[in-house]
Amino acid sequence: MNRFIGFIKKEFFHILRDKRSMLILFGMPIVQLLLFGFMITTELRNVNIAILDHAKDNYSLEITNKITSSGYFNLTENLQSEKEIEEIFRAGKANAVIVFDRSLERDVVNGFPGKIQLITDASDPNVANLVVKYLEGIVQNYQITLNRTTLNTVGIKPEMRMVFNPALESVYMYVPGIMATILMLVSAMMTSISIAREKELGTMEILLVSPLRPVQIILGKVTPYLVLSVINAIVIISMGYFVFHVPVLGSLVFLMVESILFILLALSLGILISTVADSQQVAMMISMFALMLPTILLSGFIFPIRNMPLPLQVLSNIMPPKWYIVILKNIMLKGVGVAYVWKETLILIGMTLAFIGLSVRKFKIRLE
Amino acid sequence: MSTSINIKGIFKSYDSVKALNDISLDINQGELFGLIGADGAGKTTLFRLLATLLLPDAGSIDMEGYDVVNSYKKIRNLLGYMPGRFSLYQDLSVMENLNFFATVFNTKIEENIDLIEDIWKQIEPFKDRKAGKLSGGMKQKLALCCALIHKPKVLLLDEPTTGVDAVSRSEFWQILKKIQQYGITIVVATPYMDEATLCDRVALLDKGAILQVDTPQGVVSTYRKALYAITGANIYDMMLLLRKYEFTESVFAFGQELHYTDKRDEFDTNQLQHYLKEALQQDVLVRSINPNIEDCFMALSIQKNK
Fold it and tell me: Are residues A212 and A148 in the same domain?
């Protein structure tokens, strides 16, 4: 036991004295979370629009009010004629212009469809698309209330409701994803690098010749990173909760248990990598390409799995983060318990055992 | 005196390279044993086999009664090993390194302080310095301290003095002599022939095979030829000339002189001296000398390769 404590003490010295690992350990999670949370967003906010109102009647006024009060749009200018439209796009003062037809009220009252034109600056097609969708939604909504008051209901309008993430906040997506990425990176990459460093600097030779058993060496390497990763998980969850208001509806304890399971899995992967890699550089490359990219791209974190081509969908099943992200979302956003995620949990446990078994088998008690 | 290490018919090769070729060797308990050989002779391979880090292709090694392959766990408890490369934690201080290795071997620094006291006195002033910031000699002393911290029965030192200045080297050997008094078997590998005379016995290793095993005096006494040292102003030209000389058996450069043996059993040194003087137009001195270990090594190496 003394040996073990001595070994862990030494590991902590290594980590705490290396500015680079400290930065990866604690700087990166916070920066990534803030980046994804604040900047990389697929939501619409504060889009500038202009209005050319030929109608100037109750309907056009009410629709204008609905649009400006939605929170997504800023009304920057009221235009007087069609000529000004191109000008305002060129000046970049608006991303969209809404034109109300002169005969809007008359058409609606007479039962004809009223005419509203949406013109968007499609030089940024993604934003243009979003703007059109949002504006359509608002007008549609208005139409529904209109139908209700006039009692002459025509047709059935589909009503959409976004559950679990009613405001479609993308940060709800990113927090579980980032948590999986960070834990994977810290646990797997850092352990594999730290074991590879012992090999590279020749200290592994001395450790092997000492009475330390392989299990003690591995556990000694893994324990500090387990502790640090748990701290990281707590930091990410609390940042998500306090900064981005991502709820944790399920049990926090259960969430931590699942996180520790995932950390263990990542750690055993790291050990497996280190049994193959002889230098820090190789360990880092393997971790980057074999872990980081699949975690980000194939886990459903950024790109929805159901939109992938079939081979990639199949491949995504062997990505541990995929299952962890499913578990996280279920616990955090849906508030469910073990009854709903036991399948994913079992998959993670199975993977962990497989990796540990493999690394123990591959760990060399000698130099060759 | 009983045997500490018994090496029997060891073969070891990496891919196609034969690193060790039928090595057999007995090393006694409490002996200071030198493994002498140039780079690539197979010293490190033999050390790693002894340190249970490699498996032999054939043959067996017993250390303190344990087989290095099957009982490697036992051996790892009674072994002190210092690899050729500095292998301590550079980002830990001297004290932290020492403490770490003490805990790894389940002991405390104080328990064996008498063994390492002399070395410890020298590195103690730097005990809070990071190991990576020590000088070459200090690093080796610290590494020796760490290898000795658990009072091993066998101490393996792979080229401990390579890259260390002359003063530190002689200090290092004095320390080894002192450690030997505790009954610890010490095996040292070194490419420096002058260090061989400081060992109790040496094995001359060349291209993975043992040339000779004897005491340093024994090795020297087996040298049968008469040896001459030749000094002059231009050593290089003289060597080229002597290589073509009809009676030359061997000629090697040793620092500022040439070591020369003649094919004839009896010959007149004055005659050789005169010949060189005439040919090179410079002062030349030929004198008879006693052979050192390196001369023996060269002679044996040539003999074997013939």
Answer: no
